[in-house]
Fold this sequence. Notes:
By secondary structure, the chain is α+β, with helices and mostly antiparallel strands. The protein has one domain. The chain contains three helices and eight strands. It has helices spanning 37-49, 139-150, 172-178, and strands at residues 10-18, 21-29, 59-66, 74-75, 96-104, 109-115, 131-133, 160-170. The strands form two sheets. The chain has a four-stranded antiparallel sheet, with no helix packed on it. A four-stranded antiparallel sheet has the order 6-5-8-7. Strand 5 (96-104) and strand 6 (109-115) form a beta hairpin. Helix 1 packs antiparallel against helix 2 (139-150).
Amino acid sequence: MAPLAPNSTSVVFVDYFANGFEHTVQFRTIEPLAPSPAELAAIDAALVAFNAVMPVDYDLVRFRFRAQGSNLTFPISHALPTVLGVNPGGGAEFCTFMTFVGRGANGRRASLQLIGTGIQPQDFAYANNYRITDGEAPYLGAIIDAVGAASPVAIGLASAVWYRYVNVGYNAYWQRRNR
């Protein structure tokens, strides 16, 4: 399958603060020139759903938008939803990640990654394979559903189906930066 340009879909970037660092999560959207109010509401719901896995200092900084076919992002005038993580955070958690994975109808992978989560893989007895299913951690079901609503497409604008698990681990960039 030939690669597609990263800007083949429009994207809402959300900059957030977690475990003492600023990170960015991106949501692929359908509307090519500006996110619709429904898309922003779905993204807000996903950001609030992330509370269950984020540290207590989880806070939103700004929303940005990149139009389909563009390489530039611009700030969005949008009221930030109130978020509040529930995990203590700190320590090695600043480099933890959760990756939500799906597949588009065109066969292309869809993914969304959170960095700086408030959980560590070894906190879960079943995470020895670095994968947690919604059956093993029931709160993940609501988060996966929210991700599916907030980022309904894979690259190439094909509708995405999100798998019922998340991959967890330690981000290599943040590990090296800590050394």
